[in-house]
Predict the structure.
Amino acid sequence: MGGLRSVVLCLISVPLLGILGGSASAQETFEFLGNARQVPDQFSPRYGIRYNTQGFDQPDVNWPKKILKMQRRGVPNKIIKKIAAFPGSPDAFGTWIDDAFESVRNEFTACGGQLAARANTVSPNLIYITIMPTIWYEPYYQTYAAGAYYPDTNEIRVVNVYYAVTGPQAGWLRLAPDLLEWEIGNYFAVQCQIQPEPRPNGWPCTTP
């Protein structure tokens, strides 16, 4: 996605997708919505995609203290307001997941031909989505990821919300809805046997 990007670890450990720019040491794993909590899995309302919010559908945050920390780190007030308002409602994640799946499927089926036919057979029931508290370290690539799709397990991980305060990606805001659509796009690409990344103009229709 540019900036903080995604990682795919395939069964034979060959990287298919891009990784974060910048060195690992330049990233800061600040948890903008606090710590992850143990919560039950949920299922998206339209497509029944299984996911776990780790409690970030209802963040348990001491906002005066958290806002002060963000201000000390130089996070702009307009970004702080967006983070404090996230996710907006407890059912937002399920809606975002369904919207992302539908948007990607429509993008693939609009290509027509065999790609559209394959895309129409892609099952939403194979995916498991985990919402992460912050960017995380991928030791194989020696870098941090904001989103990832793992073909061997069909797991997708995306950070809830992340703002890069330091490093070469300083100023990048990442939100779960955009990351979800990107990683579900990678899922569709792998299932349809086309290259997930890099994505040329006209992707996925122009990708062999």
User: Anything to note?
Assistant: The chain is about 30% helix and 15% strand. Residues 6-191 form one domain. The first helix runs from residue 63 to 72. Residues 1-5, 8-26 have pLDDT under 50 and may be disordered.
